[in-house]
Amino acid sequence: MISTLTDIPNVGPKVAAKLERLDVRGADDLRGADPHELFERLCAMDGQRHDPCLLDTFVAAVAYADTGDARPWWEFSRERKAREHG
Q1: pLDDT digits 0-9 by tens, 27-46
Q2: Which domain holds residue 50?
């Protein structure tokens, strides 16, 4: 079965597989979700800290599901880094 997650901007097959492990099957499951909580759950499941760029991709996917914001994930990286250093 092909995931509808890959229809979401910034979500390729590898990110879709990670989201599916979190019981996310499509944009409807992302609507209103907390991307930080999804990221933290995945890190806990895997017993390792994932790259923060994956968090930014989750933020981008949730933003798209919530508002239709289809900006590239690296714009969310810039925003995260500005918050961390600002």
Answers
A1: 999 999 999 999 999 999 99
A2: 4-85
The residue type of 4 is T
pTM: 0.93
| Cα 68 → chain centroid | 14
- In the chain, the number of structural domains is 1
The CATH number given to whatever domain includes residue 46 is 1.10.150
The full DSSP string for 30-76 is HTT--HHHHHHHHHHHHTSPPPHHHHHHHHHHHHHHHH-----HHHH
Give the residue from 47, 81, 46 showing the smallest Cα distance to 59.
Answer: 81
The C-alpha atoms of residue 86 and residue 72 are separated, in whole angstroms, by 22
